[in-house]
Amino acid sequence: MTRGGLLILTIGLSFVIGSPILRAHHSEAAEYDATKPVKVTGTLSKVEWANPHVWFYVDVTEGGKVTTWGFSTQPPGALMRRGVTKDALKIGAVVNVEGIRARDGSNNGSMRRMTFADGTQVLTPAESAR
Amino acid sequence: MKKQWISSAAFTIALAMTIGYTTQAQDTGPRLPDGKPDFSGIYTQPATVNATGPRGNLIFNADKMAPVKPGAESLLYHPRTGDTRLDEPRAMCLPSGFPSGMLYILPIQIVQNPKYVVIIPELQRAARIIPTDGRPHREGIEPTYYGDSVGKWDGDTLVIDSVNFKPWILDDYHYTDPTKSRWHTDALHTTERLKRAGNKLQYQITIDDPKIFTRPFSQDFELTLRPDWDKMGLLEYVCEENNRCAGGNCRDSAAK
Q1: Is residue A108 included in any domain, yes or no?
Q2: Which three-class secondary structure state does DSSP give residue A80?
Q3: Domain CATH for A52
């Protein structure tokens, strides 16, 4: 395990059934697979403040290799009216992200929770954001 | 005699207080020069009054729907097909349509003049331009996702009548149940009733789809006026800009 990042990827139905976080959300069945949770820690490398959903990217380093994960969250309008702007997502910040994986198996997912190193969460779970 | 006088005075005071309270509770907000209520402003998403169930604020509650006609269950609920355009159309940036497009987490702006009321959900920025000058529904127009709407005033209540819908998803039910989606037919006829009460806009939708339901049914929603959102205004919403994983296949980002 390196200092730069930690990747924990767990795939399994039993985990999902027991997860109150995932069960609290809609299906998103067309794009994401609720039976495939993903949890990564890394550095924020890019933010796309665009519709239909904001995307942010996290560089995860493991064994000297960097893998970039992309996560979708709420639409810009929904975040901005809660006072969350693009400035809240500082490039280089260390973040922990929990979500569910894209159906095509790529390194993309739908965010369920994003936590900065100090424990703050500016992007609350994206309930009803599809 | 004295007792009677006291009781009568108490009744009068109570009545006056009730009238005063009612007048205050029914504050209908500003008005246009023609005397009609002016609903102009930016509002929160509609929230279901007495919501129940998952995603309760943003879909119709099944327990408040009219009974489904025998054999019509399959018109209301469509099993998931694997074709995202049908199962979850908005995921492909297809229109939400009405009423689905009104029931989402983004704000709604109303712009109004004596001839039109324009309702603009930020979601997909699909403006509903509703004439209020007494004209009838248009004829010879192909059915559409948002239908053909005309409005009229019933006192301080705006009544919007909509017909000529393309069969489409009724609401976001499919986000609560991955096995099916909920639809209306081309027989859909909706009646919306909007009335200001203080900083709230009371909003009732009546669904009449005689191919599916035994009778019309209504559900009540409430929008909250947010003058503090005027400065930001409605934001642009170009769904195609960065819909990266449409249909379940993620592509490279298109956002610049």
Answers
A1: yes
A2: helix
A3: 2.40.50.140
